[in-house]
Amino acid sequence: MTSPRALLTAWNIRAKKQLGQNFLNDPNLARAIVEKAGLNSDDVVLEIGPGLGAITVPAAKAARRVIAVDKDGRIIDLLHTELMAAGIHNVEIREADILRVDLASIHRDASRQLVVMGNLPYNISSQVVVQLIHARRCVDRAVLMLQKEMAQRICAEPGSRDYGRLSVMLGYCAQTQVLMPVRASLFFPAPKIDSTVIGIRFADPPPVRADDEGLLFRVIKAAFGKRRKTLRNALSQSELKLDAATCQRLLTEAQIDPMRRAETLSVPGFVRLSNTIGNHCRLTEKGP
Fold first, then answer.
1. Domain range for 231
2. What is the pTM of this model?
């Protein structure tokens, strides 16, 4: 593996800070990440931000096919050259913004659920995770490298300060686990914060199923929209269009103390609350 510094210098390319470009500089770590993904010869990998190919090459050697999506057209030719030098011919590179990519279309093309891999920039990591949640019927599992604090938020348990919207949404439909820490010094250019590799395995149907998944996600968003407030106040001041008295009654009906805060409520509690709100809206013939 040629060092990222040498490659970028040879091609007269500078990493773009606005794209969160920090290129992995350790081939052993790249191989370890691919091993954690548990790839086999039937898998189709969707790689988000392949960069200079550190993960792309070992993933392509282990999987049937890799579809690599990168927004930066400057490095596409460089990546093609690196793949050719490595004798890799089962990688398709697409220049695109992953947030605008139709994952269902890629799933249909692959004829199987995808394994998603990628080193995600902090500024889009939460959006990508939400995108995967909504498209999870197309995705079997994901192995993602995230900034340490984002990984902590995703894998957080109820009652912790990191527990939030993403924790609950993923807790509803997936199992998450921390796979390995990654020091900032293993990237070029080195970011200011360490990273963490996490694994996400989606479950369909979810263990505890909501009557209306869209409403569940809106309730979660509303509850954490004002996370320092009680659930009664956070919900009544949200886009759900429920007054405080109604929120008080619905929370009590769902066997949840209205004075609790969102970070104390488990996934089954959110599902129970969402179902209760949904029943109320159907009876009153109005939607939140």
1. 213-284
2. 0.93
